[in-house]
Design brief:
Specifically catalyzes the decarboxylation of meso-diaminopimelate (meso-DAP) to L-lysine. By secondary structure, this protein is an alpha/beta fold. 29% of the residues lie in helices and 24% in strands. The protein folds into 2 domains: 8-37 and 297-427, Lyase, Ornithine Decarboxylase, Chain A, domain 1; 108-291, TIM Barrel. It contains 12 helices and 21 strands. The radius of gyration is 24 Å and the shape is globular. It starts with 7 loop residues before the first strand and ends in a 14-residue tail after the last helix. Residues 164-171 have low confidence and may be disordered.
């Protein structure tokens, strides 16, 4: 695999990230361990933002924090002058605890609770992306109670099927998200909110999917949404000021993936939007995008320690690590594919075909099937690439495994940003059935 970011292999065959030997990281912090290459995150964020600046296009680049949420990550997003996309009370609370600017937070979600909406109003966040008619009714009532005007976007399903996995395609008509563009739901929602005294309608939002490797679907989405915005201006005299085209920009997990540079996605979006606006004499809206995976995905590497192995003559060879589906559910959930390197044998020939198995009590707990790696033994360190998105954020305590630690690395320095869970953490919220003693059956 050709490395991205600051990864290299030194003369001893050891994997180096940001100038730090990954064997030293594993020794200091233990495994499993998520390691984030901060320089690569900064490079990706700057590429998105600088392209908008170079093309003199008003924009907001919002980090889609469901990819990886933590106080440190939110602080880094603030440092990079990003906006923020949150989808739950927990993400919003964490962002506010980190000191992230309230006015740059956008709140998504298809089933926001009244508690979540109240919290967003009370904290006066930047925008709520309204997803359905129920939310319109609840939000209208709450805003009247608070006598507060909230900026909103209407989320749309534009009827576009991106070339991606079924479970991560969200722009087609048959989706749990948003108002359908084709059947008139979006127009109904527009009529309900356009003159609401406490709803400040900014524009439209669409997210067509994830792991998208071309720009055609984004251009088509921009075209369909802009035509609707032009129609509203013509028929109702209402001008939308924001067009949010979501995220979904692909990254390279394996050699089968061929993503475009971040700048290319943005350039093609801007060209499509400007072309349609000029043709329709429509004022250029502020373009918002929501990269998540493309900011942190391949900046993340998970380090594991090799344990047991099993040889089945003529069939398969298994090598087990000290993590698995508890820290990376994507292979089991999406059949996601990953590449890896033995971090202490990076200069050894990769001539052994193995399946990397996790330690969870599930036959489907396989992180990588059929990968050529050097011969391994217990105690070796395996580094799985591109685990920065939806690894830690989807981690669980299945089998009562403790969630891993997370470190940021940059310029030869490492910083622990999420502690490894302790055994005490596993039972911290639990109560005994009997107050006086522990029941043993």
């Amino acid at each position: 695999m050709s490395f991205v970011g600051t990864k290299t292999v030194n003369n001893d065959g050891h994997l180096i990230i940001a100038g730090i030997n990954t064997l030293d990281l594993a020794k200091e912090y233990g495994t499993p361990l998520f390691v984030y290459d901060v320089a690569l995150i900064k490079e990706r964020a700057n590429a998105f933002m600088q392209t908008f600046k170079n093309l003199e296009t008003p924009a907001q680049v919002a980090y889609a924090s469901k990819a990886f949420s933590s106080i440190a990550m939110y602080q880094l997003a603030k440092e990079l002058e990003l906006s923020l996309d949150v989808v739950s009370l927990g993400e919003l609370y964490t962002a506010l605890q980190s000191g992230f600017p309230k006015e740059k937070i956008h709140f998504h979600g298809n089933n926001k609770s009244e508690q979540e909406l109240k919290y967003a109003i009370e904290e006066k966040i930047g925008c709520i992306v309204v997803d359905n008619f129920h939310e319109i009714n609840v939000l209208r009532r709450l805003l009247q109670e608070y006598q507060y005007s909230m900026p909103i976007l209407l989320r749309v399903t534009p009827g576009i099927e991106a070339h991606t996995h079924d479970y991560i395609t969200t722009g087609q008509s048959d989706s749990k998200f948003g108002f359908d563009l084709e059947n008139g739901q979006l127009d109904q929602a527009f009529q309900l909110v356009k003159e609401e005294p406490f709803m400040n309608l900014l524009g439209i939002h669409a997210h067509i999917g994830s792991q998208i490797f071309d720009t055609a679907a984004f251009s088509l989405a921009a075209e369909k949404l802009l035509h609707k915005m032009v129609e509203w201006k013509t028929q109702d005299g209402f001008t939308c000021s924001v067009l949010n085209l979501g995220g979904g920009f692909g990254i390279r997990y394996t050699k089968e993936d061929h993503p475009l540079p971040a700048s290319r996605y943005v350039e093609d979006m801007i060209q499509s939007v400007k072309r349609i606006c000029e043709k329709a004499s429509f004022p250029l809206p502020e373009i918002w995008i929501e990269p998540g995976r493309s900011l942190v995905g391949d900046a993340g590497t998970t380090l594991y320690t090799i344990g047991s192995s099993k040889e089945i003559p003529g069939k398969a060879s298994y090598v087990a690590v000290d993590g698995g589906m508890s820290d990376n559910i994507r292979p089991a959930l999406y059949q996601a594919k990953y590449d890896a390197i033995v971090a202490n044998k990076g200069n050894h020939p990769a001539n052994t075909l193995v399946t990397i198995a996790g330690k969870c009590c599930e036959s489907g707990d396989k992180l990588i099937e059929n990968i050529f790696l050097p011969s391994m033994e217990a105690g070796d360190i395996l580094a799985v690439h591109c685990t920065g998105a939806y690894g830690y954020s989807m981690a669980s305590n299945y089998n009562r495994l403790q969630k891993p630690a997370v470190v940021f690395v940059e310029d030869g320095k490492s910083k622990l940003v999420v502690k490894r869970e302790s055994l005490e953490d596993l039972v911290r919220q639990e109560l005994f059935l009997l107050d006086s003693e522990v029941s043993r059956g």
